[in-house]
Design goal:
ten-stranded mixed β-sheet, binds adenosine-5'-diphosphate-glucose, alpha/beta, 16 strands, 470 residues, single chain, six-stranded parallel β-sheet, globular
């Protein structure tokens, strides 16, 4: 049987992992590859002069890491340009923030082609290829053009908006249908899968039977694979981490105040500014809680070269300062706002110490922080998760306090409710949430996707041939 070849924009090379900025995609793939054999292929994170661009190979445990550099121009057009300033906002329903240029699109296609060229050197005919995320949508097409007939799967970590929004993507008709070159296309939620299938029907004239589409004598399958975390490991880590000296110091510094925690990459999709406004409203409306609660917001900088991110960072920093100025006392700072990354062990301890987990993205594919928070709780005396209904995790986490992040009243109300929730209700909700997490951990996610990818498609004759792409 062929080997597994995982392809993603960034690769978490073991010895470099400490330097890699946190991101859900690398966290998920790294955990999914544990105990597996294969290749992990992607960008090294290095920007090199054209003449010095290199491809490197590192073997560690059972994984071969193959990484390639990007030129300055590639990085600018493909990464900072088309993926992060066009695809990211549009896929998060923020058409207003998309900054399209033809040059960036051609850089995006060029880098996908570069990936395909380098992969071509290592692929064997029976390998299974698993491509991750919106950076690499046209990769299967570039591989097929080089003659590869392997089974190739694609997983979208971020949301897939409805066709009414997807069609605002300039040249969508060139990019989105190229996903049909994959054999399996996976999404985080049923809504995302449904939106994509509506796009194929509306824009490409294709019809499906049970999410199976026939495209030019081939079949592609669409399915839902909600990404998970290493549930048992996280739970174990959290139990031990409350004893870490740093975590103990943080707990001591609260002097008995209830802790509310938010952990995010600094990204406009995470709704941090809205969350701060809701917290301010909570302090204003429920003044009894003043002086009795501390909100710790850990927001690690990401994509700092992009102007929208720099603007947002300023906005959030000044909002936190303003709220502290308005409501704080000489012996109490309502918001502790931190930009540095912490290890997962430290985060697990802090999650466990927090009475409330505040996870209120405006739009999120899944949101692993919500899952990590739940995994870290003490079942006997758990905290409460407040979760945006617009996070993919809300599809599985019905027992969380679900809120609309655009409605500060609803979030402020939920904070008050969470802080005063009786133990019995907290336990009941935690047990329901933890059950979901245990059923669908990261191994289960990876195994389900790979089993579906390996499955031979049903013969075309068994499916009604409803249409072809022409
Ligand atoms: P992200 O947008 O990066 O992921 P998320 O799912 O929350 O978002 O994952 C963030 C990861 O980074 C978590 O594991 C978290 O612990 C870690 N992290 C965040 N801040 C940190 C800090 N200060 N220090 C250390 N670690 C930190 C994308 C999609 C999501 C989807 C994931 C996985 O946008 O919707 O859930 O991929 O599919």
């Amino acid at each position: 049987m062929g080997q597994l070849v995982v392809v993603s924009n960034r690769v978490a090379i073991p010895e470099k992992i400490a330097k890699v900025r946190p991101g859900g995609l690398e966290v998920a793939i790294k955990a999914a590859l544990k105990d597996k054999t294969g290749i992990w292929f992607g960008w090294s994170g290095k920007i090199a002069a054209r003449a010095k661009i290199a491809t490197r190979k590192i073997v560690h445990d059972k994984i071969t890491y193959i990484t390639l550099d990007l030129s300055k121009e590639d990085h600018h057009e493909y990464y900072n340009g088309f993926t992060n300033r066009v695809l990211w906002p549009i896929l998060h329903y923020r058409v207003d923030l998309a900054e399209f240029s033809r040059r960036d699109l051609s850089g995006y296609l060029r880098v996908n082609d570069h990936f395909a060229r380098e992969l071509h050197e290592v692929l064997r005919p029976d390998d299974f290829i698993w491509v991750h995320d919106y950076h690499l949508m046209p990769l299967a097409k570039a591989l097929r053009e080089r003659g590869h007939k392997n089974r190739i799967g694609f997983f979208l970590h971020v949301p897939c908006p409805p066709p009414e929004i997807l069609t605002a993507l300039p040249h969508h008709e060139r990019l989105i249908p190229s996903l049909c070159e994959y054999d399996l296309v996976g999404f985080q939620t049923g809504d995302d899968a449904f939106n994509f299938s509506r796009y194929l029907t509306r824009e490409c004239g294709l019809h499906s039977r049970d999410f199976n589409f026939v495209v030019s004598e081939r079949m592609i399958r669409i399915d839902v694979f909600p990404v998970g975390i290493e549930t048992a490991t996280f739970a174990y880590l959290a139990q031990r981490s409350v004893h870490l000296p740093f975590v103990k110091r943080v707990i001591g510094s609260l002097v008995g105040r209830a802790l509310i925690i938010g952990v995010d990459r600094l990204d406009y999709s995470k709704g941090i500014a809205h969350r701060l406004s809701a917290f301010e409203l909570f302090l204003r409306a429920q003044s009894d809680w003043r002086g009795k609660v501390t909100y710790l917001q850990i927001a690690t900088r990401s994509r700092t070269e992009i102007p929208e991110y720099a603007d947002m960072e300023k906005e959030i920093g000044s909002a936190a300062g303003r709220i502290n100025g308005a409501y704080g006392e000489a012996d109490w700072t309502p918001i502790r706002y931190i930009n540095r990354p912490y290890s997962h062990a430290t985060l697990a301890g802090l999650y466990r110490a927090a009475r409330v987990g505040l996870v209120t993205p405006l739009r999120d594919g899944m949101n692993l922080v919500a899952k990590e928070y739940v995994a870290s709780q003490n079942a006997d005396d758990p905290g409460v998760l407040i979760l945006s209904r617009f996070a993919g995790a809300a599809h599985e986490f019905k027992a969380a306090l679900l809120v609309n992040p655009y409605d500060p009243d609803s979030v402020a109300g939920a904070i008050g409710r969470a802080l005063s929730m009786p133990l019995a209700e907290r336990r009941e909700r935690q047990s329901a949430l933890f059950q979901v997490l245990s059923r669908n951990d990261i191994q289960h996610w990876a195994d389900r996707f790979l089993t579906a990818l390996e499955q031979e498609p049903k013969p075309l004759s068994q499916l009604e041939k409803m249409s072809s792409m022409g």
